[in-house]
C-alpha cells in the first residue's frame, strides 16, 4: 500500500528552524528563564514535523504532537494535558475550548509564543512582518480560505494585530 505523504521539503526545514529560533527569541525577550526558552525552541522545531507523515495539511499538527509523545510513551497520559503538547497540537488552530465569546479563551504562553513565531517566519524560513506572513498565506490559499481566515483570527487573539483582518472580508 503506497502512502501519499506530503513530506518535509527543504523550504519547510528552513521554516521549522526559523520558527524554532524565533520562538526562542520571543520567549527570551518576554523575560522567561533559559530552560523555558529552550523548550520554546523545541516547540518550533517539532511543530511542523508531522508534515513528513501527513497525507493532508490539516492533520500535521496532530501528527507532530503525537510524535512528541512517541519519544517517551511512558508519560503519554500525563503529557496529553501539558501546555507544550497542546501548543504543538493546536498551533495554527483555534485553542481548545474556544467559544463565540473570545473572553472565555485560555491562551497559554506556549500557544502564544509558538503561533507568534509561526506568524513571523515565512515558508522559506525568513523572518517577516505579520502582514507579510498573512499576505503569503492569503496568496497561497486564497482570501476566503480556512487557512487565511484562521491565521487572521489567531493573530488577533494572541495580540499580533490590533484588528482582525478576517472580520473585514466580505
Descriptive notes:
- With 170 residues, the chain is mainly alpha-helical.
- The protein has one domain (10-168): Hypothetical protein af1432, CATH 1.10.3210.
- 53% of the residues lie in helices and 0% in strands.
- The longest helix is centred in the first third of the chain and has 20 residues, at 10-29.
Count the DSSP helices.
8
- The CATH architecture is Orthogonal Bundle
The first-to-last residue Cα distance is 44 Å
CATH class: Mainly Alpha
Question: What brief labels describe this structure?
Answer:
170 residues, mainly alpha, Hypothetical protein af1432, 8 helices, 53% helix
Short synopsis of the structure:
This protein has 170 residues and is mostly helical. 53% of the residues lie in helices and 0% in strands. It has eight helices and no strands.
Fold blueprint:
Elements: H1 10-29, H2 34-46, H3 60-70, H4 76-79, H5 83-90, H6 109-118, H7 130-141, H8 146-157
Helix pairs in contact: 1-2, 1-6, 3-5, 5-6, 7-8
